[in-house]
Design brief:
By secondary structure, the chain is mainly alpha-helical. It has 10 helices and no strands.
Length: 242
């Protein structure tokens, strides 16, 4: 996996700044904009799998980007159902101590039971969250390949793909996580420093916060490039480049 190539991929496009800013503006549109940018990231993955490493996709087929983003969101929601099933009871178990009434001993026992159950469910939820993170590249590659929700629900194929290239998939997610942490820390630290400067600092801090929008677009494109590399290495071919 070429991490350096993924890091610099965006900047190889002559219109990279315009395309990032357009994505940032779309991010400001609730729901619709997020789906469009997600679909744009899928287009990047699709291009890499088709052997088209540059330039960045043009912001032309907004309708297709929106539908791809929406369909991929549906896929992720379907895979999140077990997580909801695990976590929803946590809100219920904390009602148990109230059933003890004025019996302090019973209340203490029920509170202990609630704590243990919540801890167990929280651990299960955390483990499934890690699994979801590892499945994300696989699902994005599969959707970019077929453009169909059904292809992402062939669980045997999905998990076979996951375990066949688990090393690169783990690396991709760790690298994306580290990139988001590093830039997030830099921006938040700078904003905190500027916040102590009256007026000018506040204005600059607000402007700096807006920089998180194009960075978020870059991060999605960066991760999409890594996922496209995973799909290309696996010999998976997308529908067509965009």
């Amino acid at each position: 996996m070429d991490i350096g190539k993924a890091l610099g991929y965006v900047f190889e496009d002559e219109e990279w700044l315009t395309k990032l800013l357009l994505g940032a503006v779309l991010f400001l549109i609730p729901i619709f904009g997020w789906f469009v940018v997600m679909g744009y990231a899928i287009a990047v993955t699709r291009n890499l799998m088709a052997g088209e490493s540059h330039p960045l996709p043009a912001w032309q087929d907004i309708g297709r980007f929106f539908m791809d983003g929406l369909m991929f969101w549906v896929v992720m929601m379907i895979y999140s159902i077990p997580l909801f099933i695990v976590l929803c009871p946590m809100a219920v178990v904390w009602i148990l101590p109230a059933l003890g009434g004025e019996e302090e001993d019973l209340v203490a026992i029920l509170a202990g039971v609630s704590g243990l159950v919540s801890l167990g469910l929280g651990c299960l939820g955390g483990l499934y969250g890690i699994l979801m993170s590892l499945l994300t590249p696989v699902l994005q590659v599969r959707y970019a390949e077929t453009g169909e929700i059904g292809a992402c629900l062939r669980f045997g194929e999905i998990f076979q793909f996951l375990f066949s290239d688990i090393g690169n998939i783990v690396i991709s997610q760790v690298v994306v996580w580290l990139a988001s942490i590093v830039v997030g820390l830099v921006v938040s630290t700078a904003a905190t420093i500027l916040a102590v400067i009256p007026i000018c600092g506040w204005i600059l801090g607000g402007a700096l916060g807006l920089l998180m929008l194009p960075f978020s677009v870059w991060l999605m494109v960066f991760s999409a490039h890594l996922y496209g590399q995973i799909g290309h290495r696996a010999g998976i071919h997308a529908l067509e480049a965009q």
